[in-house]
Amino acid sequence: MTRNYFNKVKEVLHFYYLVPINTARFMLIRNLFSYVLLVLWLLLSIPNVYATEKTSTIDGVISTIGSDTLSRLVSQWTEALQQNHPGIRLELHSGGSSTAATALISGTTIMAPMSRRMSDQEQRLFARQHGYPVTEIPIAEDRIMVFVHPDNSLTELSLAELDAIFSSTRLRGYPNPITHWHQLPSTYDWSNRAIEVYSRSVTSGTYGDFRELALAGGDFINRLIELPGSLAVVRGVASSKNAIGFASFAYLDSQIKPLAISLTSEESSVAVTDQESEYPLSRILYLYLNHPPNTELPPHYAYWLAFVLSEQGKAILLSSGLTPL
Q: Which domain, by its residues, includes 19?
């Protein structure tokens, strides 16, 4: 009875995704409804799977294509699950969130982690290609940290100053480009050192989110040093006293110094570690599934997802400095 009712609800949801939608509010409700349905299905069909005995016959390869930001978490979730299910293996391709969307649309992957939300256009292309909606699962709230070398005396930046360092368009209104450390009051004694600006690559969801949140949608400077992964950016900044960069808070390291960020120069800055205050560069991390209506996920994917959404899975998020949703 419950299974039949659940399938009817999924059919209704499938119909809604095929009808053109013009309001952002309905899109939000629709995606939330999809997420609730997925969680309900997991709870109904595989309760307490992460507590199954080690002798379980569940095995298979979890293959993901997408976010470098989430790659460390995907590995940690899988390693924890393997303690009870050693037959589950991981095949991880972390080329960035843009590669996740492409792989989902082309049918190359069942599951794709993304550090940004799939765009409306990407979701429409998916639905057009497959005839049903992509399943969106908000996983955690992340904070994009901005950081410098520990020897740098700088402790905070406003969004306008950050924009003037990273952007050529300066849409936040700072009067001049900031290209040298002595242009900032707290680093005035750094003589005429040029700022080395490190960034994630253009395929990264973090690159896109930072562009929207920090640069107000403006253009990055041409002299940007783009690196393929969050860890590479952290290591790049840690190795150069003149550097500044950004990455997910999950990559906080003692070899770098995170900066507090303020909305304006008149307002108080918020440290990336301050969980009690609203941080200006916050965003949501997602998992996306290619899950046809009225079908069940392969058992090892279902077990893996149930673990991620369990208290144990959320504890791994918390240990990385992220806030579970």
A: 2-139+285-324
